[in-house]
Write a structure and sequence with these properties.
Elements (H helix, E strand, L loop, with lengths): L1 H12 L9 H16 L4 H46 L3 E6 L1 H12 L5 H7 L1 H10 L1 E5 L1 H6 L21 H13 L1 E9 L5 E10 L10 E7 L1 H54 L4 H28 L6 E4 L1 H12 L7 E7 L5 E5 H17 L6 E12 L12 E10 L6 H4 L20 H10 L3 E7 L3 E11 L21 E5 L3 H13 L3 E5 L2 H11 L5 E5 L7 H11 L5 E5 L3 H4 L10 E4 L4 H23 L5
Parallel strand pairs: 7-9, 13-14, 13-15, 15-16, 16-17
Antiparallel strand pairs: 1-2, 1-5, 3-4, 4-5, 6-8, 8-12, 9-10, 10-12, 11-12
């Protein structure tokens, strides 16, 4: 009985868990029953069996304690790893408890509401209540940094981080979790200070909690910078497309000018011929002069469009600002609505600047266009003021340019104005407040760059609801451009009796030009084809004194025609007529094999003086080459 008592005492003192199957107790009961079964003669054998049993149980107990200790340490290590990854993750991580929401959704289902989406659409207050029931259990350090929080205690529910008016996110999230246990969305958000964010939100229910939603994990990826770069790339691609369109327009400008000038040429020519033929009949002469004035304005408009649209090499030279501003005003004035008044104050005889005329034209056009767009939906006043200004050292402290004499062009409007945040961005590349179809394509950042390259700058003053004033400063130069050496055209038009070959593929243009030449006394052979003109010249080369040809013609250009004619008669002088040509605009006529060129539409005065000048020069060359006459 002492052995049985000892065995029971050891079994009761054992630290083996109660919930585990007690093999020790079963063995003890077996040992207690042995004396009765085996008798007193077996006591020694029984004591040996008990000792062995106690040894086995002791070893088993130690093994269990070691397994439990090892498992506990592994669990602690896993928890530490998880905590480290959670806290140090560069991605914002949340742990949420949606058990209260899940219970509420089950309640709605029990009430017979099967379409939760329609229910929440009809009851937005219930959706906001669900947002408040989503409890944030924990967030990592990146979340605090992203949302500009100082402590996790500042967060309690998802409603604290939910973008204003974005309850629809909660609805989509709940429906997605019910359907598949996960949810993804990209949404615009804000920090506590109001800074804009673009985030990619991903939600997933933890394994084993699909029925209760007690543990839900959320990752928030900040893609604000990627979104900004993507938008900038799209804007850059749009600007590149716009640039290609402008390049295409510039390439087509020559052809457009050629066709338009061919329309203007007969109008101008007929009007000038009518003036000559009308005698003293003042009524007809009056009408013709008005036709001429309107046609000349149309011709100037074509030249301004060419200047604005074409690409030319930059040519920096002494330049007067007033004529450029006048050209821009003349170009813009017809397009302004009656609700916008245009005022100009341009001082005459101002000093010159060193700049490229095309670039300055574009800069002024951009500022005027901006002012117009600021007032087009309402009404107001657009004013341009040009004068000279002396800037002191104190006025240049905040700018990277030197004090001295500057021409100052102020472009002011009484439009909607700009706030301080917009003013700080207007010179940034790609920044614009205009609609996609507005503007000239020349941003203020480019304007600023052009002015800085000339040693100038641009300043802006604006007030919301009052208007905006841009002040453009360009340094003055003391040099003045050389005066043209042409003699003033006075008195009657120069005349002659030489024989001229006239070539133009437009019959109406050729007829008008022929009529003007014949009025000046010349004999004219007219052809409307370059091949016909070459054939006629071969027959009449000894009689022809001058060739006047259009530049752009089918089969053979004017330059090619003159080259062919010079193979027949090397000293034949030639004049090219054109509405637009990069080749002729950028070089002297002699470098392309002709003696002069006339811009279409041709005025009778220009035609008379240029023809006479070329013929006289050719006669002088001929006299020089022949030498003195023999005695």
């Amino acid at each position: 009985m002492s052995v049985a008592y000892a065995a029971r005492s050891w079994a009761s003192a054992s630290s083996i868990p109660d919930h585990a199957p007690s093999q020790a107790e079963r063995l003890v009961e077996l040992v207690c029953a042995l004396p009765q079964q085996l008798g007193q003669d077996s006591s020694r054998l029984l004591l040996l069996a008990v000792a062995l049993l106690l040894l086995v149980l002791l070893l088993f107990h130690r093994r269990q304690r070691k397994i439990l200790s090892t498992t506990s340490q592994e669990l602690l290590q896993v928890e530490a790893r998880y905590r480290l990854l959670f806290e140090q993750s560069p991605i914002s991580l949340w742990e949420e408890d949606l058990s209260a929401v899940r219970c509420y959704l089950e309640y709605l289902r029990d009430e017979g509401i099967s379409n939760l989406g329609a229910y929440f659409d009809a009851h937005p207050d219930e959706l906001r209540a669900c947002a408040k029931k989503i409890r944030i259990v924990d967030v990592n350090a990146r979340t605090l940094q992203l949302y500009e929080l100082e402590d996790k205690e500042e967060l309690s529910t998802v409603a604290d981080l939910l973008p204003l008016g974005a309850e629809w996110i909660i609805k989509e999230e709940l429906l997605a979790l019910l359907a598949r246990g996960s949810f993804e969305v990209t949404v615009a958000d804000r920090t506590l200070s109001g800074q804009e964010l673009t985030i990619e939100l991903r939600v997933v229910v933890a394994a084993g909690y699909e029925d209760t939603w007690e543990r839900v994990y959320v990752s928030v990826l900040d893609i604000t910078e990627q979104t900004r770069l993507k938008k900038e790339k799209e804007q850059y691609e749009q600007q590149m497309q716009q640039s290609r369109k402008l390049e295409a327009i510039g390439s087509l400008a020559g052809g457009i000018a050629h066709d338009f000038n061919n329309i203007l040429a007969p109008i101008i020519g007929r009007a000038e011929l009518m003036i000559l033929e009308s005698g003293e009949e003042s009524g007809v002469r009056d009408h013709c002069r008005k036709i001429l004035d309107a046609s000349k304005r149309a011709r100037d408009l074509v030249r301004q469009i060419l200047t604005f649209s074409r690409e030319v090499d930059q040519e920096i030279k002494p330049l007067a600002m007033q004529p450029i501003v006048d050209e821009v005003v003349a170009l813009v004035r017809p397009t302004l609505p009656a609700t916008i008044a245009l005022q100009t104050s341009l001082k005459p005889d101002l000093p010159f600047i060193m700049a490229d005329s095309t670039q300055i034209h574009q800069v002024v056009m951009n500022l005027v266009t901006n002012a117009f767009h600021a007032m087009e939906e309402t009404s107001g006043t657009l004013s341009l003021e040009l004068d000279e200004q002396l800037l002191t050292i104190a006025e240049c402290l905040d700018e990277q340019f030197s004090p001295g004499r500057y021409l100052c062009l102020r472009v002011a409007d009484s439009g909607h104005g700009m706030d301080r945040a917009t003013l700080e961005k207007i010179f940034n590349p790609y920044f614009t407040t205009k609609a996609r179809d507005k503007g000239t394509g020349l941003g203020l950042s480019v304007v600023h760059g052009i002015l800085r390259s000339y040693g100038g700058t641009i300043r802006v003053e604006s007030e919301v609801g009052v208007g905006t004033t841009f002040s453009l400063f360009l340094p003055v130069v003391e040099l003045r451009p050389p005066r043209p050496g042409l003699k003033p055209r006075q008195g009657p038009l120069p005349r002659g009796d030489e024989h001229i070959l006239l070539v133009d593929d437009e019959h109406s243009v050729a007829e008008v030009c022929k009529g003007m030449l014949e009025k000046l006394g010349y004999k004219v052979t007219m052809r409307v084809s370059s091949l016909e003109a070459l054939e006629a010249f071969r027959k009449l080369s000894d009689q022809i004194d001058l060739v006047i040809t259009d530049l752009t013609m089918p089969q053979m250009t004017g330059l090619q025609l003159v080259a062919q004619l010079k193979q027949v008669k090397a000293d034949i002088p030639g004049i090219i007529c054109t509405g637009f040509s990069e080749q002729l605009d950028s070089s002297k006529p002699s470098t392309v094999g002709v003696d002069a060129y006339l811009n279409k539409p041709v005025l009778m005065e220009d035609l008379a003086y240029d023809v006479r000048a070329v013929l006289d020069e050719a006669r002088g060359r001929s006299a020089d080459s022949s030498g003195p006459l023999p005695a």
